[in-house]
Every structure is written in C-alpha cells, then in structure tokens.
C-alpha cells in the first residue's frame, strides 16, 4: 500500500534502489490504497500489465525461460466492495497462465491467530478461506514474524493482513520460494520480500 497518487520516477527513486526504475501502479484513493509493482529491467522484461482493483504484471526472466505473473492487491475494507474484489481475481485467474503469485494487503485475517487480541468474526474468516480454497492457491509462509500490521499505539493492535499466495505452477517452477519481512521505515505495515 503506497498511499500515493501520481508516482513519478523522482518519488520512486526516494525509496527504491537505483536499479529498480520501471514500474506499474494504481493510485491511492484518498488516504489509503495505492499499489506499486517495480522491477529491474536487467532482470525482468514486462510482457503485459492489467489493473483494476489490483495490479497484475506478466514478466519474462532475462536469465532463464521463466515467464510468470505477479498480482499486487489492496483489498477494500468495505464488505460490499470485497465481493467485487474477489470476483476480479477469479476473472483474472481465467487469463493467467503459468506461475502466479498474489501478494499484498488483504485487510482481513484467516484465523484468530492472526490478531493479537484473538477476536475475529466467523463470516470474515470463512469468506477469506473459502475464496482461497476456490482459487486453489497456497499461502507462502512468513518465516520471521507473526504479524504484519500495527496501529503503532503504546498498547498495539497487531494483525496479519499482508500475505502472499501462489498457484501450483509457481510451486512447480519455484519450489524453494521463501517469505521474510524487511525493516519497517515509515509504514504501519512490515514490507515483505
């Protein structure tokens, strides 16, 4: 979640390494949202990109014959908007061929373990887990952290709302994929790599 509109190369250079200057993005809506996919042209070639409520990009790897998809998401907080969001990803699944990874802020949890308070609503967790089952994706486990978001208060609310999922083709092509967090700078989310 960038929370930014009209990302320029100058702004991008303020928080990404110099080698990463190509990007596709979806502007924020007010003070929330905004999605950015950025890459190094010496390592990946963009074949195509699609965006609506998410940003999807198909890449060719310059060092091999691998072609893969990356979809970055920022799921709406509104229950009414979530059905449209889920439908968009179902529709995208019909277009995507080969390895595919879906990553980002899902603004929802899978179980009570995903909140330090342990409080969840059954409809929230069922909707998310049913969607994952229907999409036939697996979660890439986060290896070094239980929670990915904090309200930054003295008695914090902690949740695991940032996640990465992958399809079977991704697992076959890249079976040793791992997920770790990066240091948090200014965001209320921990970045993942």
From TrEMBL:
A single Pfam family, by name?
Answer: Exo_endo_phos
Q: Which residues cross the membrane?
A: none
| Residues of the Endonuclease/exonuclease/phosphatase domain | 50-189
What does the record give under GO molecular function?
catalytic activity
Q: What is this protein called?
A: Endonuclease/exonuclease/phosphatase domain-containing protein
In its UniProt entry, the species of origin is given as Brachypodium distachyon (Purple false brome)
